[in-house]
## 1
Amino acid sequence: MGAKEIVEKIKDEANAECEKIMSGARETGKKKVEESRAEIELQKRRFIEAEERKGVEEKERIVRAARLNARKLKWDVEEEMIAKALEEAMNRIKEVKTDGFKGNSYSDIMAGLIKDAAISIIAGSSAGGDELEVIISEEDASFVNKKMLKKISDEINQDRGVNVRLSLSGERIKSAGGVIVRGKGVEIEVNNTFEQRMARLSTSLREDIVKTLFMTRSV
């Protein structure tokens, strides 16, 4: 083999090797391109899914906010109506003092509140006799007198077999109506003012008011 043939053979071998390298590079490049496209598609799907989740979450957030706002509005309306109903009830006390309530004069109502408070005190007392004083507002002074207190004391003593004595205190309270009865010399009292009675009954009053104002009736 001459020098020319040797050079040609080397060139052919070099060309073959170069083609082999180029072919491998093309395959590698093609694979890289496909992998890049797959990665791009994956990122694209992830982005779309994330945006869709954001959309669902935003819708759910709006619905939750709307429901919360609706409950708040309902609560505000209930509170406003309950406050008005309780205010109206307190305002009617003035009418009760003048006209009475369900056939009972305001003096009768006061007597009932005094008796109820006195019985509560003696029920929790171990003493055989109890000196109790009745505290009222200046406005209610004309509805309570010594004769009334003597009558209440006699009724309690006869019914309960005790020796309770009620007297009218010179102290006055600020109240729309009702009484405070307390034991002399002992730290015990029952607050039977209308404000406190309504506060003690607030839960049941609230339920009754809500039922009256907001309960729907089927037709």
## 2
Amino acid sequence: MNLERLDPRPDNYCFGCGGANPRGLRLAFELDRELRRVRGRFRLPRELGGAAGMLHGGIIALLLDEAMGKLNRLHEAHAVTAELDVRYLRPVPTDAEITVEAAEVARNGRSLEHRGEIRDAAGTVLARARARFVIIGEAKP
């Protein structure tokens, strides 16, 4: 298995994965080019919660969008989210380890389709998403 670590870049102001935003989450992922998958493990604080002890739905969507967006590196492309469909299956707890995974589904011209899941430490799927990204240019080095 050849994993590429995708750490927050200090010049990126993205709220989810950038290193320059002082209020950002600074999410780091691992990219497996062979399996065409992305994975990240996180323990998010209650400050990102919605209802009592549960992660806010918008943060759940952000996690899935970030993971799926990292797959665009497989195409050496800069792409933006065009569609995001999130299924909230079970509450996602704050202050507990979760795994966010994404996999490539298809490419049709400039359109890239990916799927993602959030699981708890026992492997139970808590949320699932599909997204379509549109390539708008070449990736920056």
## 3
Amino acid sequence: MKRSHAGAGSADISNKCLPCPDSPNCVSSQSVDNAHFIEPLHYTTNTAGARRKLLEILKRIPRVHLAKVETDYIHAEFRTSIFRFVDDVTFFFPPDKKIIHVRSASRTGYYDFGENRRRVERLRARFEK
């Protein structure tokens, strides 16, 4: 079942945040299917303040490497503690909107047993504090 979400399919979506593959090891706020969709992060400050806050949170998480940081885009690599797998988490700040699109995906494997969804929800809880 497909459903439309705020931001999905609109002109402000950057190709920096790739669509999720068919496998269940990815979530994205830009996905149009229920299995992969997750709400974007919301903020009330200005974009620079939200970006700064998100970067502070990411820098305090063990085994996170900031691979790319731009004005409207952040790519973080999360390394798992046991097997050292890398998961890619990207954030996109669309202009003139108080949301941060997020995508979290495993680089390898097929199942993630819900880890990408839990990761985004943990980030959301920290971000909304």
